[in-house]
């Protein structure tokens, strides 16, 4: 618990942490838009090469996430976060540098994608443990709500900023925005002071496997991971279907497409803002369960949409409801997981969580494409809504 004497310093420290993550999140969204364009527009990659670059993200996480989590647990968290930012700075900046010298290759993009994704896991593993020390248990849910709200804001602003910058300077140089965000994040993290961030050696010899074993033994977290992974995979399954549905079925213009992608992010902001208030009224388990169950039904509105502004509004309402419920759920489940995970295992548990979720995403994307090819776009959206609802049924009902 954070007592009254230390609370001002803790809030000050969280302000720095929040600002650093906000800048990094926006930069990463710009990079997520620009980096694939570098392959397609600059290197003229084939469909297979483009898919290979995407697959490398999951590959890096699958191979190295668990050892990385164990490594994080044995070290002070703030230096790990700063180091991850600085390495990502050099890594991402190497793309425009190689382009300027005419030596950029698909192999380099594969390496950058794989290592950058792994370092995201390293940073997240360290930051979740560090957040517990910065704000304490009492303010953890509020802090997670703010961080998740910032992520949705980045989802809203990042692609728009990236699109403008790509139009001005091209995809390769736009990647420098992402690199600069890592530099800013590292500098701001240096300003966090008076937090006990000393490294503590693990008390057991479980090593790399201990995080996986802990999740397997903990009944509530095991069910929470199963539900979250199924939700995440379904969102990945539906994402390309959403794009195809908007363009082919609703025949949207470029402006309408932008609105359809951006407006639902406001729902994510709203959900993150109210997550703590709802959890304080209903309790964390009830909040996770109800928000988890309400994700799927909203998606059923989407396949009911028709061409034109009124039909588009129906589809946007469906996605907005989904992201509002998902945001409440995400902020609450992150806090629940942090509170139920020992500090000495936070790195390994977070890395194990990320590995399970990320490794299934490429399979989900392929499954979505195959399913839509066989049964069509609207039925696939209905299937996705059913799976999202089923994911809510996997959530724990008691600690």
Helices, strands, pairings?
Elements: H1 7-42, H2 47-73, H3 77-100, H4 106-135, H5 140-169, H6 171-189, H7 210-217, H8 219-249, H9 254-282, H10 284-293, H11 295-299, H12 309-339, H13 346-375, H14 377-393
Helix pairs in contact: 1-4, 1-5, 1-6, 2-4, 2-13, 3-4, 3-6, 4-13, 5-6, 5-9, 5-12, 7-13, 8-13, 8-14, 9-10, 9-12, 10-12, 10-14, 13-14
What features would you describe in this structure?
- With 399 residues, this protein is mainly alpha-helical.
- The protein has two domains: 1-191, MFS general substrate transporter like domains (Growth Hormone, Chain: A), CATH 1.20.1250.20; 207-399, Growth Hormone, Chain: A (Up-down Bundle).
- Helices cover 82% and strands 0% of the residues.
- The protein has helices spanning 7-42, 47-73, 77-100, 106-135, 140-169, 171-189, 210-217, 219-249, 254-282, 284-293, 295-299, 309-339, 346-375, 377-393.
- The longest helix is centred in the first third of the chain and has 36 residues, at 7-42.
Give the tags.
Growth Hormone, Chain: A; mainly alpha; 2 domains; globular
CATH topology assignment of the largest domain: Growth Hormone, Chain: A
Q: What is the CATH architecture annotation of the largest domain? A: Up-down Bundle
Report the C-alpha radius of gyration, rounded. Answer: 21 Å
Low-confidence stretches: 1-10
**Average predicted local confidence, pLDDT:** 89
Approximately how much beta-strand content do the residues carry? Answer: under 5%
Major sheet summary line: none
How many β-strand runs? 0
Q: Superfamily at the CATH H level of the largest domain?
A: MFS general substrate transporter like domains
Write down the domain tally.
Answer: 2
State the separation between the terminal residues, measured CA to CA.
Answer: 21 Å
Judging from the principal axes of the Cα atoms, what is the shape?
globular
H/E series: HHHHHHHHHHHHHH
Number of helical segments with 4 or more residues: 14
Secondary-structure class: mainly alpha
User: In the CATH hierarchy, what is the class of the largest domain?
Assistant: Mainly Alpha
Tell me the helix content. over 70%
